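Example record

The entry below shows one chain as it appears in the dataset: sequence first, then structure tokens.
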Amino acid sequence: MKQLGDRLKWLRKERNWTQEQLAQKLNVSRSQISKWENGDQLPDIKSIEEISNLFNVSIDFLLGRNHVTKEILHEIQRTYGTDDIDEELLEVIRYLKQNPKLARSLYVLQSLPAKKRKRIETIVTTTIQELLRAFE
């Protein structure tokens, strides 16, 4: 139950929505959202489907099931002929799919000349690490 709550909270915060805003979109009470996020209660099947549609994620993702992840990972490994792709990289890909502005920025970054790209990568990496330490 906790994994669904954690993912729901993460998805909500990614969109900068309050629990109240999410509750309105799903036509439930704010306290219901709180119970779901805290793992005190599971949403019913209809609500899980609505959450899946609202955030454009699979129900498997919401429930923390990774058999789909393993299938995707196997397909990527087969297509690219490499074992260098692991579940961590797959999570990064999933994150980028849910954040198209960031994905587009990284796409533009990778097209820069190597020297410029390396400088920007260093700045971005350092900034992210500092922000993560600040939020711990």
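Notes for this example: The radius of gyration is 18 Å. Residues 114-134 form the longest helix (21 residues).
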